[in-house]
Amino acid sequence: MKRFFLFLSFSALLLQADSYVLIANKDLKLTNISRLYLKQIYLKKHRYFRDVKLIPVNLDVQDAARKSFEKEILKMSRNRLREFWIMQHYEGVRPPLVMHSSKSMIKFVAKIKGALGYIPEKNFSSQENVKIIYRWSD
Amino acid sequence: MKKIFLLFICLLTIVSAKEYELGEGYQLGDTPLYVGGYFSLDYASYSKGDLQKVSLNDMALLSYGSYHKFSYMAEMEFKNYYVKTYDNGKTTTTKDTKLYAERLYADYTANENFMARFGKYNSNVGYWNLTPINVLRDTTSSPVTARVVFPKYTTGIDLQYHLFTQSEVSVNITLQDNNSLDEAYNNFYIKKHFGLGLEYSYDNLSVKLNGGYFHKKNHTQAYVDNYYGYLSFLYDNDTIKVMGGLGHRDDNREDAVKLSTYLQATYEIASHHYPVLRLEHYNAQIDIENGIKKDTSAVFGYTYRPVYPVAFKVEYQVHSNKALDKFLTSFSVMF
User: Fold this and answer.
1) Chain B residues touching residue A30 (CB < 8 angstroms)
2) Which residue of B143, B145, B247, B333 is 20 to 30 Å from B67, comparing CA positions?
């Protein structure tokens, strides 16, 4: 009986986990990528794919998707990210752009060839000019 | 004086900007251009005699931007703008009001693999040399290794090749065959510098190997061939940063650095608080400091950053040559 309850609790936790997707413009020939590759793009160490300039986009600082992205993909604390971008300011590199909602993120990515952004999977619509290139969950 | 006035006007413009966040620079309107800067106020007390020094140092203005595949960086700096020295009851004040071009370069990124840099830039050797300013360092002082093995600045071309997979492999070629821009600002007077660097990075760890040749003006004003090799690494995660370097320089004469090395660890013990430990050793045929050619030292430091771009630092250096023991403190800001 105990095992059954444990199984139920675990399943409930899994069901509650939020899923997120990294979307890119459909014309960008970038398909399945690794977490570290994605991290390099968001830290602007990797700024081009072939000869297309990549434009990583963040959601607002308080957005749950951004918090999850920083924890699960970048694996960096907010403080460390702030330090990182101050160091990059000395190098002449700016942090990613910020969009204020999933809707504006999808619109921006659909319009700009090199743009990439993350949104909750439930907000994704396959009708837009965007494709999913990475998935993760909390 | 005009230059100082202009600098402060720029500063005031920056800090009064609405969306400005300290340490991240300021965007000029809707243009892709940004400005920022930094300064450092230092104090040093030497165990030898009664020597103390106060200096307003590293006062600089940055400007950078990008357009399509091009970008630029301009860093103009007052070095040792104001230095007051107390030496056994005698006080001297020096001012260097010349504005130097610390970095002045343009980048062209062809694609994900190739990038070329033209102009004056921090020599792409090791890790310390890439962010050499006080506010971004973990200690007020820099390791001796960072100034005796290779030229800190190069005026020429830097060609880079990057290969990204799960990890990153980079190769860079440094080429200088001309006079240096503001050469008095460099640690060596050089006319030529050819270097090769190979770097491997995986997540938080990076390792780099550099080797090269440069033509250095010696004490008789003649240019002499110098060769160097430098191995360095950097590991950085949320709470700890460890970095090190090991170098050798030789000119086949008497002006050689047989070995110069350092290892430094910084630990974020609590939010805003960073104790630092650095171990150093060098063995040279030339005078490195106060006539000393060989030394081993430990640097005990502590940095408090109320916010990251503002740093209050103290450090005490213990050397095998007691005459080099010193206490340093500084206040530095990036804006």
Assistant:
1) none
2) B333
Please give the DSSP secondary-structure letter assigned to residue B222. Answer: -
Would residue A10 count as lying in a domain? no
The whole-number pLDDT of residue A126 equals: 77
Query: Residue A132: its pLDDT value, please?
Result: 93
Residues belonging to chain B with any Cβ–Cβ distance to chain A shorter than 8 Å: 23-25, 34, 36, 38, 62, 64-66, 68-69, 71-73, 109-112, 130-131, 133, 136, 162, 164-168, 202-203, 237-238, 271, 308-309, 334
CA-to-CA distance for B246 and B128, rounded, in angstroms? 12
Contact B110 A80 (CB under 8 A): no
In a domain, A106, yes or no: yes
**pLDDT at B88 (0 to 100):** 83
Prediction ipTM score? 0.89
Q: Is A7 inside a domain boundary?
A: no
Global pTM reads 0.88
CA distance A94 to chain B (A): 8
Across the interface, whether the CB atoms of A77 and B111 are under 8 A apart is answered: no
CATH of span B2-334: 2.40.160.10
**Is residue B315 scored above 80 in pLDDT?**
yes
Q: Token match 């400007």: residue?
A: B63
Q: Containing domain of residue A72, as a range?
A: 18-137
> Which of A76, A90, A91 is closest, CB to CB, to B238?
A76
The verdict on A89 touching B (C-beta cutoff 8 Å) is yes
Whether B64 and A51 lie within 8 Å, measured CB to CB: no
Residue B80 CA, chain-centre distance (Å), reads: 15
- Between chains, do A86 and B112 touch, taking CB under 8 Å as contact? no
Q: Cα–Cα distance between B244 and B246 in angstroms, integer?
A: 7
Does the distance separating the beta carbons of A53 and B167 come in below 8 Å? no
Q: What SS3 state is found at B322?
A: helix
Q: Are A40 and B111 an interchain contact pair (Cβ–Cβ within 8 Å)?
A: no
Q: In this structure, is residue A116 part of a structural domain?
A: yes
